[in-house]
Specification:
Elements (H helix, E strand, L loop, with lengths): L1 H11 L8 H9 L4 E2 L1 H5 L2 E2 L2 E6 L2 E4 L11 H6 L6 H7 L3 H5 L4 E5 L9 H5 L23 H28 L5 H9 L2 H4 L26 H11 L5 H9 L1 H11 L2 H13 L4 E4 L15 E4 L5 E11 L7 E7 L8 E7 L4 E5 L11 E11 L3 E2 L5 H37 L1 E2 L2 E2 L4 H31 L4 H29 L11 H9 L10 H14 L8
Parallel strand pairs: 1-5, 6-9
Antiparallel strand pairs: 2-3, 3-4, 4-5, 7-8, 8-12, 9-10, 10-13, 11-12, 14-15
């Protein structure tokens, strides 16, 4: 609604970092003045200090005393062009933050560069920063509707979400509820569940009707998943709506009609959230070993749930828990799945991990939670099959997000290598750096090609077809192995900045700090590799010989 939109915008405008297009455009509107380099050179004293950065002229007289790096660094460049030094120390968005210091622009500077916020919302022209079909190559997979959706979602996150993402990731604050509702209005929460009839339940259509539910396919979802992960704020992403991507599909596929009517409208509006609760301290990849119990009470109408769950993403914010429980004997046949509503008997405690606390990762205790029998998914004992069927989409989604983060990291490193100077030359002039960049580009592009082939076959065969399980497992395995290489090379190229939180190395440091996490959740690398090979063995033709 208009009221929700206005409220969200007011909320976002109070954040500590404001790289908005509105601010940058208004600042540009004040930049009517132009100067020659000779005029700027006259302002070279402590009480009158101007500076040239990227063709713009800044009055840094009062700012010098506030500069985090000390005033001398500012005054050394008073009256001079400090562009090269500036971009060796700062990211482009710093210029957005201090746009109020602009006095004007050099007469010979040419057109102004896009601000960081504007650049974030546009398709990058940096080689390999985007999939090939966005940089002039043809693709059999992407149509105009996919490209239009990408542009719309990218601009939405640039305008409405970026500053909330940065603040939450840095401080661990809860993602904005108003922003989550905006995601609901845009149909984004519905779209990250994949294709299906549920898309017709999006409260206001898909990006205002840009895409019709009946034409929406897995490549449309791929686009949305990629765009929501471009902030490189993984904790915020999962806390905002990522957890719903793995919890809600169970309700959509296995929930009774009354259950969908009860939960889906509020979930798709962003009023509530839902998480998947399977892992325990006792059982991670070994799902069949879970201990959380659900026992019928004397009336036979309610289950009494006791036990614990661990590492549950989004658990701190959730109203609904799609929970794996033991209703029978040991092993996989004794597992059931049920929807557990939040209550005083369901207690969540935050878990600190490499992710930002914005993810809401939780340790959950079920202390005699009363759950009506009708909240069971399917029949008793069918839980293991439900869990396994849900894994394919989750693992595919993880691969999509991880490849996008790897691409962003590679773009950052490429830009750094092009602008950083060492021993009198650009860093990229070093052969060893070019080899590392080639490995990063090749890793991202090969995983992208594999992802697109898998996604194409998900459209034709469905994500749960027998042919897809091994392929998706292999995709996730190859992707998380590629991330290790990208993270290692990125830090080596950025040096100290690659291990420093915030500032110039924010994206690389974040990537390197969290890249290992997806190699564990959704099925560890070892499990993924084993599953892929076991599927190949199962389908091995008996007559095949060397």
């Amino acid at each position: 609604s208009v009221a929700i939109l206005a409220q969200a915008q007011r909320r976002l405008k109070t954040s500590f970092y404001r790289p908005t297009a509105t601010c940058s455009l208004s600042c540009r509107g004040k930049m009517a003045a132009t100067f020659t380099r000779e005029e700027v050179a006259k302002h070279c004293k402590p009480d009158d200090a101007w500076m040239i950065i990227d063709g713009n002229v800044y009055d840094v007289t009062k700012f010098a005393a506030l500069h985090p790096g000390g005033k001398d660094l500012i005054l050394e460049n008073a009256g001079k062009d400090a562009t090269e030094d500036f971009f060796g120390l700062h990211r482009l968005e710093v210029l957005d933050k201090y746009a109020r210091l602009k006095k004007g622009r050099l007469q010979d500077a040419g057109p102004a560069r896009a601000t960081a916020a504007e650049a974030f919302g546009e398709i990058s022209k940096t080689p390999y920063a985007e999939p090939g079909h966005l940089q002039g190559l043809s693709s059999p997979y992407f149509k105009e509707s996919h490209i239009a959706l990408r542009k719309a979602v990218r601009k939405f996150f640039a305008k409405e979400a970026l500053e909330d993402a940065l603040e939450c990731e840095a401080t661990g604050r809860v993602p904005s509820k108003d922003l989550r509702k905006l995601l609901g209005d845009m149909g984004i929460i519905a779209m990250v569940q994949g294709p299906g009839e549920h898309l017709k339940m999006a409260p206001k259509g898909l990006m205002g009707g840009l895409v019709k539910p009946e034409e929406f396919d897995y490549f449309h979802e791929l686009v949305v998943q990629e765009e929501r992960s471009r902030t490189m704020c993984p904790g915020w992403e999962d806390g905002l709506d990522g957890a719903c991507s793995i919890g809600v599909p169970v309700i959509l596929k296995y929930g009774a009609p009354w259950m969908k009517e009860l939960t889906i409208p509020s979930l798709f509006r962003g009023d509530e959230t839902c998480v998947l609760a399977i892992s325990e301290a006792f059982a991670g990849s070994d799902v069949a070993a879970i201990r959380t119990k659900a026992v019928l009470d004397a009336s036979g109408e309610n289950y009494i749930v006791t036990g614990t769950k661990k590492w549950i993403t989004g658990g701190m914010y959730s109203e609904w828990f799609v929970t794996a429980v033991r209703t029978g004997g040991p092993g996989a046949k004794g597992i059931s799945m049920m929807l557990v509503p939040k209550s005083d008997a369901v207690k969540c405690t935050p878990i600190k991990s490499k992710y930002s606390s914005a993810a809401g990762t939780a340790y959950i205790t079920y202390e005699g939670a009363v759950v009506p029998k009708k909240y069971l998914f399917g029949k008793e004992g069918s839980g293991f099959q439900i869990i396994m069927s849900n894994f394919n989409h989750e693992r595919w989604m993880i691969a999509v997000v991880c490849i996008m983060r790897s691409r962003l990291c590679s773009e950052e490193v490429f830009k750094w290598a092009m602008q950083r100077k060492v021993f009198g030359n650009r860093l990229v002039e070093q052969p060893v750096i070019r080899e590392k960049m080639a490995q990063m580009f090749a890793g991202v592009e090969s995983c992208t090609a594999m992802l697109h082939e898998v996604t194409h076959n998900m459209n034709s065969l469905g994500s749960q077809s027998p042919e897809m399980g091994g392929r998706i497992a292999l995709l996730k395995y190859q992707t998380t192995r590629m991330m290790h290489m990208v993270g290692d090379h990125a830090v080596q190229i950025l040096g100290g900045r690659g291990v420093t939180q915030g500032g110039m190395g924010r994206i690389v440091e974040t990537f390197h700090r969290v890249y290992k996490i997806p190699s564990v959740y959704g099925g560890s690398e070892e499990i993924m590799a084993d599953l892929a090979v076991r599927q190949a063995i199962k389908n091995y033709p008996p007559a095949a010989r060397l």
